Amino acid sequence: MAPIVHGLEVEYYNRINFVYLDVDDAANADFLKQLGYRYQPHFMLIDGDGNILQQWLGPVAADDFRNAFDTYLQ
After folding, report:
1. Which of 4, 5, 32, 67 is least buried, going by the fewest C-beta atoms within 10 A?
2. Phi, psi of 25 (to 5 degrees)
3. pLDDT digit string (tens) for 25-66?
């Protein structure tokens, strides 16, 4: 998944802020719990107000991400 996500990060540079959380870092545990994190990979599209717009669990095709990104960027 990393090559897909990193490629999308380049593609959507300056339009979407990609944030990566280390699930093994205890400092992130409370935040991950608030988000409802379940397991790896777990992707979330969050707006500027902290609302979760969409979530994906497990492997995701790049076009699925693109469709969601483009919908919310309009």
Report:
1. 67
2. -90, 115
3. 999 999 999 999 988 999 999 999 999 999 999 999 999 999
